[in-house]
Design brief:
The complex is a heterodimer of chains A (114) and B (112). Chain A contains no helices and eleven strands. In chain A, strands 2, 4, 5, 6, 9, 10 and 11 form a seven-stranded mixed sheet that branches. Chain B has no helices and eleven strands. Helix content of chain B is 0%, strand content 57%. Chain B starts with a strand and ends with a strand. The chains are: A mainly beta (114), B mainly beta (112). At the A-B interface, β4, β5 and β10 of A face β4, β5, β9 and β10 of B.
């Protein structure tokens, strides 16, 4: 098991463009989480999946953001019409059900919107 | 006021020192308390978690939770330059999906 992986590691895009990130969780983990981290801050929760069902979304997740986990394995996070304020590190984590306190994070995708 | 408060530092210590990192919180529903280490431009790495009050030790690391004071600590013994990183505390309730609520992180610098 190689842990949580995320791609790409770094994305530079122009304002107004759409971007999509991918997360591959630890294989036996049925819960998958997305967080956003800005400079000098701790990660902030965005959304989470139990298998393929998206069960909770933060108020931070505006309607320009959409996340999917189509087969309960990998997940994608798409941001439409990016804004400079979207520049951040997007982190994915996974855990076993019932062990949400034991979340393992991927290396993150750093988004820069110019 | 944030649910979890953490001094951002930086905290500078010489190699071999005992380091004390702390967080306070306001939500009495928090039952699980985690410490993560994050190197620059990397994802957070789970160091240890504690349930409710008490102490937990893992090698050079000791986590303490005082729920009556809403105060948690992480102690690092015999600190090494490789411990230089940002340390994040995180907390979650015992119900629901256990969303993690993080502090801002404390930057630790251990000099040789």
């Amino acid at each position: 098991d190689t842990g949580v992986s995320q791609n790409p590691r770094h994305k530079i895009t122009k304002r107004g463009q759409n971007v999509t990130f991918r997360c591959d969780p630890i294989s036996e983990h049925n819960r998958l989480y997305w967080y956003r981290q800005t400079l000098g801050q701790g990660p902030e929760f965005l959304t989470y999946f139990q298998n393929e069902a998206q069960l909770e979304k933060s108020r931070l997740l505006s309607d320009r953001f959409s996340a999917e986990r189509p087969k309960g394995s990998f997940s994608t996070l798409e941001i439409q019409r990016t804004e400079q304020g979207d520049s951040a590190m997007y982190l994915c984590a996974s855990s076993l059900r019932g062990k949400g306190y034991e979340q393992y994070f991927g290396p993150g995708t750093r988004l820069t919107v110019t | 006021q944030k649910e979890v408060e953490q001094d951002p530092g930086p905290l500078s210590v010489p190699e071999g020192a005992i380091v004390s990192l702390n967080c306070t919180y306001s939500n009495s529903a928090f039952q699980y308390f985690m410490w993560y280490r994050q190197y620059s431009r990397k994802g957070p790495e789970l160091l240890m978690y504690t349930y409710s009050s008490g102490n937990k030790e893992d090698g050079r690391f000791t986590a303490q939770v005082d729920k009556s004071s809403k105060y948690i600590s992480l102690f690092i013994r015999d600190s090494q330059p490789s411990d230089s990183a940002t340390y994040l505390c995180a907390m979650s309730p015992n119900t629901g999906f256990q969303k993690l609520v993080f502090g801002t992180g404390t930057r630790l610098l251990v000099s040789p």
